[in-house]
Amino acid sequence: MGDVIATNQTILVVGGGISGISAAIEAAECGKQVILLEKSPSLGGRVSQLHKYFPKLCFPSCGIEINLRRIKANKNLRVITMAEVAKVTGDAGNYSVEVKIAPRFVNEKCTACGDCSNAVESEFDDEFNYGLKQRKGAYLVSNMAYPQRYVIDPRMIGSEDANKAKDACKVGAIDLQMQEESLTINVGAIIWATGWKPYDAKKIQPYGYDRFANVVTNVEFERMADAFGPTGGKILRPSDGKEAKNIAFIQCAGSRDENHLKHCSRICCMASLKQTTYVSEREGKSTVYYIDIRAIDRIDDFYQKVQADENVSFIKSKVANIIEDKDGNPILKGVDTEGYNRYENQHDLVVLATGMEPSIPADAFPMDIKINEEGFIEADESNGAIFAAGCSSDALDVNRAVQQATGAALRAIQVVNKVAGMEG
Amino acid sequence: MSNGNTALAEKYRNNFLQEVIANVEEGEWVRMCMQCGVCAGSCPLGNAWAHTPQEIFMMIRAGKREEVLTSDSMWMCTSCYNCIVRCPRKLPITHIMHGLAHYAERMGLAPKNQPTRKFALEFWKNLTKTGRVNETSLGVKLYFIDGFVSGIKKGLAALPLGLRMFKTKRLDPMAMISSSGCKGKGDIHKILAKAKAIEDAKFQSKNA
Fold this sequence. Notes:
CATH architecture of the largest domain in chain B: Orthogonal Bundle
Oligomer: heterodimer
Structural class of chain B: mainly alpha
Number of domains of chain A: 3
Number of helices of chain B: 12
Mean pLDDT of chain B: 90
Number of strands of chain A: 22
C-alpha cells in the first residue's frame, strides 16, 4: 500500500456501500481528494445483495455499474478494500486516522480468471448469500465485485489448499506471506457510512427462526429470488427443496418493538410488498401479516398495485407465534384486528421482514461520536467534522440514503474548503 | 357502590378511557396499545374469553363502559405473563387486566357468577379472617362453590384421594375448625382496614 497521499484537505469516507460510494463520488467529482475505505473485499455493500429495488423494480447491478464507472474515471478517488478504521484522533480539519488493512493474499496482478478457485477444495459459508450456500476458499465476492480481484480466505492459510491456489495462478498474483498492514492518514473531514445489518432474527423467540427451517429472513429471501443466488432464482423451501407457493410475510419482525428495535426500520413494508411481486411472478400466493403498512408518497402507488393483485392478501395482525407441523410447514397463530378472529394458518414458507440495526454497536466506535437511543449517529456539533451518511445515521431506503450521503459530502466539502482557505 | 357507579359513569360520560386512566391500576397504559394483537394470540386461555385484551383496550377507547366492566375477560387471566413478555409496547397487560377486574368489582358491575371471581372472593375472605389461608376450609368452599348437591357429588368422587391423604396425614379435618391463624390477627385486621380507608379516601378525592 504505502503511498497513500493524504492531507488535511482530503476527505475520508468509511464504508463502501451505496451511501459511502455516493458520498465519495460526489466529493471527488467536486474536485476534492477522497479516500474510500471498505472493510470487506469488495465495494457495493448490502445493496449489491439485493435482487431488485423498489418501487421501480430495476436491478441494483445496473446502478452499481454506473457508480463503478464513475469511480474508475475519477483520479481524485482512492479506494482501499479490506480496511478498517482502528482509531480516530484530532479535530475538524485535522484528523489522524489509524487504518488496519487485512491481508487479501492476492495482489494487483490478479486477472480474475478463477483458476485458484477451481484448484481448491475447502469451502466456507458464502457471506454474500447470507450463508445459504458455500463458496470456495479462494473466491470472488460476487460477479459485480470491485475490485475484480480474488480473495483467499484467511482460514485456508497454512493448508495444502492454499498452496494449490498459489500453484494454479499463472500470473503470480497469490502471495501467501501477505501480512496485516497499518496505515495512518491525515484527513480534514470524515464521512462515516458504515451502514446497517439485519436484526438477528434468532432473538425473536416466538417466530422460531433458529428452530424452523422454513422460516427465513427478508434478506435471505432476496438472495433466493436472485438468478445468481443459492437457489438459482427459484423460491425453494430450505427443509425439503420443494418450491414454495404459499408464502407468509411477517412485518415488524423485531422493529417497532420495545423488546427488540424500538424504531420503525422504514424499508421492511416496501421490501415485503416488493417481494410479493417475486412470488406472484412465480405463480405463488403471498399473505402479508402487518400492524400497519407504512408506504408513503410515491410508494403508496406501489402499495395500491400490490393490493390489487389477487394473489396477495393482507391480514391486519402481528403474528403471536409460529409452530411447525410434522411436514415442516410453518403454522402462524394469532388474532386479527379486523374482527378479532383467531387464526391458525399453514404456509409453505415464512419470510420475516426483519429490520435494520446499525452495523457498529454503540460501544464499538473508534472515536467519540454522538449516538442516539437506537444506536444511530446523531448530527451534533460535538462530532466535529465527522458526518454520518446513509444508514449509520438512520434506517433509510436506498433513495433516502443516497440523498443523505450527498448532504454529508457537502458538509465535508465545506470543512476542507475552509482548511484550503486557511492553508492558502 | 351502584350509586358511586352512576356518579362515575356520569362524570366521565363519553370518556371511559379517561375514567380508566384515572381510576384503574396501570390504566394510563391503555392509550399506548397499537392494536397489533400479539397479546390476544399469545394468551393460552384466549379462546375461552369473551374479549381478548386487545379487544378490551379498543372497547375502552370506544367508550363501551358497561360491556367492559361486565366482561368476564379480566377474571379469566391466569397471570402467565405471556402477553407482557411479548407486547411490543411493553404494556403491563396482566396488571391492567387485574386492575380492571378490581375496578369492575368496586363499581359493582363484575359478573356475579363468574367462577374465578367467586373463588377470588372466597380466598380473600379466608385469608383475611386469620391472616393465614386455611387450605382445608378453602378447599371445602371450593367444592361447594356451585351449590350443595354438586359439592357432595364432587366430594364423593374425590373420596378415595381424601382418605389416602388422611392416612398419610396430609389432610386434617379438625384444621377446619381449630385453625391456628397467625399471632397478630387483630393487627392484620387493623392494617387491612387502614389500607382500605386510604384507598377509599384516594378514590373519593380523585372523584370528588
